[in-house]
């Protein structure tokens, strides 16, 4: 038996239009280099105005110029996401400049390798303060002002799912914890506030973090990935845009893995 058509005016919106971000404002943290820049540019290309936040002011300025070349407005704010106050200041600046926040991309993160028996407590705590606590403080500040239909994207990692062969318990556990944070915030906010919360789970992409890895090791990782290579920045940015836009309007509390098939190995 065929089902009657659903009376939903949004089904008449052309599918590609659902990826458009015109009239929306997005905050991207860790936007001074690498994948954060790719994400900011993708959002701008889709029509969003941007607030780009990072610790390095020179990098923020470069990203701001790239966004403005897309014809979009962009505000650069220096921010260490480990600071609750600085996270709040980013959102305050966004509201003052644009009057709204529709998307948050929690991209800021740091890594570090250390054998577990020799891990410095301050090093371990700092990685958590940036990767997990920073994501929470930014989400908390945005959750207070976001309207229904907004989207929060927390950036996790495939290393939250599997052992890499490198001793980095702090980084791995912080990225695994982001999945739990995502589930809880989605449960709290999607039904009550209309804010979707999802996680993006990258595999290996060219970035400041992978730049510190041995070249032969990266080649080996690419070779054993089913796709036969590392990811490209625009491929992760495209997945992020799906989660940020109305194209994913029925997606919340999930983790989208973008790893070329690495986790099926």
What brief labels describe this structure?
single chain, 265 residues, alpha/beta, Rossmann fold, 8 helices, 7 strands
Number of domains: 1
Beta-strand content bin: 5-15%
CATH fold description: Rossmann fold
- What is the CATH architecture annotation? 3-Layer(aba) Sandwich
Query: How would you describe the shape?
Result: globular
Distance between the termini: 41 Å
Sequence stretches where pLDDT stays below 50 over 5 or more residues = none
Description:
The chain is α/β, with parallel strands linked by helices and about 260 residues long. The protein has a single domain (about 20-205, about 230-250), classed as Rossmann fold (3-Layer(aba) Sandwich). The protein is built from eight helices and seven strands. It has helices spanning about 35-45, 55-70, 85-100, 120-145, 170-195, 210, 215-225, 235-245, and strands spanning about 25-30, 50-55, 75-80, 105, 150-155, 195-200, 255-260. The protein has a seven-stranded parallel sheet with strand order 3-2-1-4-5-6-7, sandwiched between helices. Helix 1 (about 35-45) runs parallel beside helix 2 and helix 1 (about 35-45) packs across helix 8 (about 235-245). The longest helix is centred in the C-terminal third of the chain and has 25 residues, at about 170-195. About 45% of the residues are buried.
Summarize the SSE layout with pairings.
Blueprint: E1 25-29, H1 34-45, E2 49-54, H2 57-69, E3 74-78, H3 84-98, E4 103-106, H4 121-143, E5 151-155, H5 169-193, E6 196-202, H6 208-211, H7 215-224, H8 233-244, E7 255-258
Parallel strand pairs: 1-2, 1-4, 2-3, 4-5, 5-6, 6-7
Helix pairs in contact: 1-2, 1-8, 3-4, 4-5
């Amino acid at each position: 038996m065929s089902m009657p058509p659903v009376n939903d005016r949004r089904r008449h919106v052309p599918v590609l239009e659902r990826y458009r971000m015109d009239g929306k404002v997005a905050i991207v943290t860790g936007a001074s280099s690498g994948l954060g820049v790719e994400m900011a540019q993708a959002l701008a290309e889709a029509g969003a105005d941007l607030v780009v936040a990072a610790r390095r002011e020179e990098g923020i300025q470069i990203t701001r110029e790239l966004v403005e070349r897309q014809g979009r407005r962009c505000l650069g704010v220096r921010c260490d996401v480990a600071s609750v106050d600085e996270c709040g200041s980013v959102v305050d600046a966004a509201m003052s400049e644009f009057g709204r926040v529709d998307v948050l991309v929690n991209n800021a993160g740091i890594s570090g390798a250390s054998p577990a028996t020799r891990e410095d407590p301050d090093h371990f705590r700092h990685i958590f303060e940036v990767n997990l606590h920073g994501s929470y403080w930014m989400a908390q500040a945005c959750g207070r002002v976001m309207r229904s239909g907004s989207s929060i994207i927390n950036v996790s990692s495939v290393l939250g799912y599997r052992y890499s062969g490198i001793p980095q318990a702090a980084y791995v556990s912080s990225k695994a914890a982001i999945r739990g944070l995502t589930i809880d915030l989605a449960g709290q906010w999607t039904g009550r506030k209309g804010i979707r919360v999802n996680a993006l789970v990258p595999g290996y992409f060219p970035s400041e973090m992978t730049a510190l890895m041995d070249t032969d090791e990266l080649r080996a990782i690419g070779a054993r990935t089913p796709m036969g290579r590392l990811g490209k920045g625009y491929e992760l940015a495209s997945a992020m845009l799906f989660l940020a836009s109305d194209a994913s309007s029925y997606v919340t509390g999930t983790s989208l893995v973008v790893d070329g098939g690495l986790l099926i190995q």
